[in-house]
Design goal:
It contains five helices and no strands. The chain is mainly α and 129 residues long. Helix 2 crosses helix 3, helix 2 runs antiparallel to helix 5 and helix 3 runs parallel beside helix 5. The longest helix is centred in the middle third of the chain and has 30 residues. Keywords: Membrane, Transmembrane, Transmembrane helix.
Length: 129
């Protein structure tokens, strides 16, 4: 049973589906005061964006980390990755006319920033050894 859990948890598709469901649900909740279908549209848009960002955030950090050295390699890759993510979220939610953009993107950005920072720190620490 544990082997099956590890195998399922290790697949990228599992992470993408959890990102879609979790952050999409958050967007529906964040926009619940608005008439339908606005909350559902916001949820689908945020779910797709979170799924996409889940797939590419690690790759972005990996590529950026190779371009910098020293302490710059510690803080600049996550800062760039999260800034690009924030811009992408704001622009696409504006285009899709999400009613509550700041509230909708707050949790996904915090999760992305946490992941980017922790992942980059682990890479940076290993490189320094």
């Amino acid at each position: 049973m544990i082997a099956l859990f590890r195998r399922v948890a290790g697949h990228s598709i599992t992470h993408v589906l959890f990102a879609f469901a979790g952050m999409g649900s958050w967007a529906v909740f964040s926009n619940r005061a608005h008439p339908m279908p606005d909350p559902v549209i916001a949820g689908v848009v945020q779910g797709m964006l979170s799924a996409f960002l889940t797939l590419v955030l690690k790759t972005i950090i990996d590529r950026l980390a190779e371009r910098f050295s020293g302490h710059t390699a510690l803080w600049l890759p996550p800062l760039i990755a999260v800034s690009v993510s924030a811009c992408l979220l704001v622009v696409i939610h504006n285009v899709s006319e999400t009613p509550e953009i700041p509230q909708t993107i707050s949790l996904p950005l915090m999760v992305a920033a946490s992941y980017a920072t922790i992942y980059n720190y682990s890479r940076w620490s290993l490189r320094r050894e």
